[in-house]
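Customer ticket, subject: "Can you confirm the structure for Class I SAM-dependent methyltransferase?"

Message body: Hello, I'm evaluating your service for our small team and ran a test protein. I'd like someone to confirm that this is what the system normally returns, since I don't have a reference to compare against.
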Amino acid sequence: MTQNIYDNQTFFDGYAQLSRSVDGLDGAPEWPTIRSILPDLHGKQVVDLGCGYGWFCRSAREQGAARVLGLDLSEKMLNKARTLTQDAGIEYHQQDLEQLQLPTACFDLAYSSLTLHYIEDLARLFATVYQALVPGGQFIFTAEHPIYTAPKHQGWQVDENGQKYWPVNGYQQEGQRISNWLAEGVIKQHRMLGSYVNLLVQQGFVVTYLNEWGPSAQQIAENPALDEEQERPMIFILAAHKPA
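Agent reply: Thanks for trying us out. I re-ran your input and got the following:
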């Protein structure tokens, strides 16, 4: 079973202070890039894996989706999503993505934001998503970049010349990593970027887009804290589809 860290009160309270929690998709600097690769959602069936506060679920409905299913392990996150949602076209259900079950050939789009780096059995999840998509259906997700999930130390380091750098440790050694982000002992799964791609291909997906995301000059000008994301990508964005 996936660690239910989002129901840890300390973690949940810290997460609630993040800009992507306060401002929703507008507070996620990668959102404009994701938005640019989304398909036309009018009349489509959508599932959001790790829906959190439900920001994408509501956005998908605003973009014309016929029905959206939001799934999350955290009861606290789902309760927050429900308080923010007044839409009968969105359903929220609690589900551990390690044991994900979805109906066959039901969804046009499967979406996931910053969730898959918590999943140990990613091959099983990808297989479930594949069978749940209609032919031609798309799978778009973001996850923490492997450079970010394999730090040698917590945070940036400074060399003898005063330059910041981001050291990694055992990059090719995939598996569980522990971080202390918002709470102690947060379990993540480190895997190389190629492993994500190969697992998708092995299930039959066709990979169509991969972006090791970094902020634009305008975004950095508006939010100088994003400047460090130029030095190492924190996330990546990937799109794939099930052949028609």
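A couple of notes from the result: Residues 9-134+154-242 form a domain with the Rossmann fold fold (CATH 3.40.50.150). The chain is about 30% helix and 25% strand. Feel free to reply with more questions.
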